[in-house]
Structure formats: C-alpha cells, structure tokens
Specification:
26% of the residues are buried. It contains 26 helices and no strands. With 480 residues, it is mostly helical. Pfam families: mTERF.
Length: 480
C-alpha cells in the first residue's frame, strides 16, 4: 500500500532519527535507542518495564481499531505481530503528547494512552479511508532515504495507477459477460456505474469488498432500519466505509451506545441518511463531544434531540472547533447552550471566515455588540447566511422600508425570508393599502392572515380618521 507523504505522521527531530535507525540497525540496538531518545532533547530514559507496558497498551488499542474496521480477531492478531515498527511509532505518539508527565516521573493511565492514540488512528482513517494490514505491517513504507524532516513523496502516477486498478474492477466482466457480483447488486439498488467509480476513486478499497461478507449485510441492515431503497446509494456514496465495518462487533454496538446518549432509535433511518459517518466514529470520540455538550449546560434530553436532528455535531473537534466557537458567541452575550440546541450548524462555521464578518457587518451598520447578540439569540440561523447573497441585499432593501433599525433586533428572522418572493411583494401590498404593520406581521403571517391584518389595519385607520374629523366638528366619536 503506497501512502503519500507518510512522513507527516512520523515524529520529527530525535524520534525521526530513531525510526531511521530502526530500519537500518539490529532490533535490540534500535530498542535501546528508542528508550533513550526524547522529543524535548533530554536524555532521561523511559524504564524498560514501563516501555513494555506501553507497547502492550498500544497493541490493545490498535487491535480494537483494526477489528472496528472489520478484521477478525485472528487477522488483527497476526497483523499486530508483524508491526513492531508501527507499534513503536504509536508509543512515540504517546510520549510526544504526554512528555511533561515523563519529566515528573508519572506513569500514564490506560485512559490517557487511549486518548492519545485513538484520535490519531481516526485521523489516519479519515485521511486515507482505510488503515490496512499493509500500512501497519510495512510502516514506514517506503523507508526514509532523505533528511528525516523531508516528506516522502510518492509519484502521483503510482497513486493514480492504484486508483485506476481499483476502478478498472468496476467495469471488468467475466467470460459470461457479467460484472462482478457486488457491482451488479449495487446497480440493482439504483446506483450507476459512474457513482460506483466515483466512490472507488475516493476510496479504492470499496472495489474489493465482497458482496456476501460486507456489502449485502450492511445494505439489508439499513433497509431493516427503514432506510428507503432509493437512499442507499446516497448513504454509500457519503460513507462507503460503512461496508467495511462489522455489523455484530461494531455497527450495532455503536448504535446501542448512541441510543444510551439519547438518539431516538425510531429515527435511525433519518440519522444515518443525514450523517452516515456517525457510525464509524469511536466511542471515545463520541464521548468527548458529548462531555462538551454537558459542559456547556445542555440537558440529556436536549443532547439526544441534537444528535438525532444534527448528528454532524459529533464530527466537530472539541478543542479546535466547538470550544472556540462557544467562546466567541459568549463574547457577544449569547447563551451558548440555547444557541447550540436551536442551530448547531453555527458551530461548524469558521470564526474568521464566517462569524466575524457577519458580526462586523452589523456593527458597521450601527448596532451594538449587545444588539448583535440579541439578534443571534433570537434567530440562530442568522450566521449561516451568506453576506453577499443574503444579508447585504436584504439590508439594502430594509433601509428603504421606513422601519427603524431596532425592528431588526426585534425580528432578525427578516433575513430568513425570500427577498423577491416574500419581502418585496408583501411590502408593496402594504404600501398599496397605505398602512404600516410591524415587521413581524408583515412577513410571518400566512397569506390569508396577512390580508386579514391589512383589512383590520385599514378599517382602524379609517375609524381613526373619522373620529378625528368628528372631533374637529364637535361630534361624538363612532363606536369601533
């Protein structure tokens, strides 16, 4: 298995020299060197007994991860036995993440070791779609030949050749003139050859999945959950890795775990359609996200509703995405738990590219930070709109509508209505009647209620005018 830029996953500086040495020196020499090298440049060694224990922990984590991808116990064990260099690499990741603990002589717990390795293995899975036996057994492949810090570049022609080989299987026919069975099955489900090729181009392993061992069991399971047959191609296109995961050992237990977190088991068909990758995440990854949701004040019931309605929230990294976004909205005076419940999509947006430009737009129009915070609190979707395509043109029309600016603070939902199909026609109709409704009444009422509101307003204005005229003439006002 050729992996481009594999060196990006190897530690730099002293650790990289360790792995170069491991490939060229006898194993016992490399092992001693491994114990003594340190990322921080110190010579303090890790005790051999502790190192051995950490290797066993790394093997256990890797074994579980390989099994999660569908490997049997026997195959996973054989792979581990041939993967000393990759195991040493995993141990180096532990030392790199927790080097301060070693400086004070504290031994790591099993949970700390797992927390260091599982996200790293998941990052490999996310980037390459698969961590195969070849990857683990032959790490690093090819060997480092240049400077340790220089990335290893695999010719694109080799990568293209691998993809083309996998894609060629999609069109290959047997002597009887038939495609491979699993491709015939996918075509019968409604998937086109081009869709299958597109999946294979992004995830070559898909071309080698067996029909009876992988694809059919997963598809039939999805159908049993209530997923419409026409949705299967969409789900497999979004996450073909689902077919590589064991039903009994991974998918079903993962779903049971998710149900304990509040996902409505009656809604699994919709949840999987919305975000099929949810079932490929580890329990630790999910738990980290859930712990954050509790931390910001969400109830167990509301967390379950969020996971059911917007399972993508689990894909957002807590420290890189969720926490910074929460802190940003807090700076605007927003109750983050309420906002996340109402519009979790906001937490997948870039602070610099999406959130700050919208905030600055309203500040430039004369609104205060507190008013902007009120607007997003009242209408969570506000920040999901495009400045150029939505906010700016609607603002430019709003300033012609003779409403005071605070009306938008009271009713920021204004930006959620179509400018051409709702706002302009309703406003023109209101002006035609020579009355003024609140912005909320203008846009949120149904067509019949809107017309009724106009009639009442016209009648009221007429009565007011009559009363004013009668008062000038000294006549008593008419009853309304």
């Amino acid at each position: 298995m050729e992996i481009p830029h594999l060196n990006r996953f190897a530690p730099h500086s002293s650790w990289t020299r360790v792995y170069t040495s491991m490939r060229t020196q006898p194993h016992h020499i490399a092992k001693v060197f491994f114990c003594q090298a340190r990322n921080d440049g110190s010579s303090k060694s890790v005790p051999p007994t502790l190192l051995a224990a950490e290797k066993e922990e790394a093997k256990a984590v890797l074994t579980l991860f390989l099994k999660k991808q569908g490997l049997s116990n026997a195959v996973a064990a054989r792979t581990i036995n041939k993967s000393d260099v990759f195991i040493d690499h995993l141990v180096s990741k532990i030392h790199s993440k927790h080097k301060s603990r070693y400086l004070i002589g504290r031994e790591l717990t099993t949970l700390e070791i797992r927390d260091a390795l599982i996200p790293y293995l998941e990052s490999l899975f996310e980037e390459y779609g698969d961590i195969s036996m070849d990857f683990v057994e032959n790490y690093p492949n090819p060997p480092v030949k240049e400077k340790p810090t220089a990335p290893i570049s695999i010719p694109s022609s080799l990568l293209d050749s691998k993809k083309m080989k996998a894609m060629s299987r999609v069109s290959e026919i047997d002597p009887a003139g038939k495609l491979r069975p699993h491709f015939v099955y996918l075509l019968e489900l409604g998937m086109s050859i081009e869709q299958i090729k597109s999946i294979t181009r992004k995830f070559p392993s898909f071309a080698y999945y067996s029909l009876e061992g992988k694809i059919r069991p997963v598809v039939e399971f999805l159908l049993e959950l209530g997923v419409p047959k026409e949705d299967i191609p969409i789900i497999l296109t979004k996450r073909p890795q689902l077919c590589g995961i064991s039903l009994s050992e991974n998918l079903k237990p993962t779903m049971k775990f998710m149900e304990t977190l509040g996902i409505d088991k009656q809604q699994w068909a919709k949840v999987i359609y919305r975000f099929p990758a949810l079932l490929t995440y580890s329990k630790q990854k999910v738990k980290t996200s859930i712990d954050f949701l509790y931390e910001i004040g969400l109830s167990e019931e509301n967390i379950g509703k969020i996971l059911t309605r917007f399972p993508n929230i689990i894909s957002y990294n807590v420290e890189d995405k969720l926490r910074p976004t929460a802190n940003y909205f807090r700076s605007l005076g927003v109750d983050v738990s309420i906002l996340l419940f109402r519009c979790p999509q906001n937490f997948g947006l870039s602070i610099e590219a999406n959130l700050k430009p919208v905030t600055e737009f309203f500040l430039e129009k004369g609104y205060t930070v507190q008013e902007v915070g009120t607007m997003i609190s009242r209408y969570g979707s506000l920040y999901t709109f495009s400045l150029a395509d939505n906010l700016i043109p609607k603002w430019e029309f709003f300033v012609t509508m003779d409403y005071p600016k605070p009306e938008l603070v009271k009713f920021p939902q204004f930006f959620g209505y179509s400018l051409e199909e709702r706002i302009k026609p309703r406003y023109a109709r209101m002006k035609e009647c020579r009355v003024t409704l609140l912005l909320n009444q203008l846009l949120s009422l149904s067509s019949s209620d809107f017309e009724e509101a106009l009639k009442k307003k016209v009648k009221k204005n007429q009565l007011d005018e009559d009363s004013s005229c009668n008062a000038k003439r000294g006549q008593p006002p008419k009853e309304k």
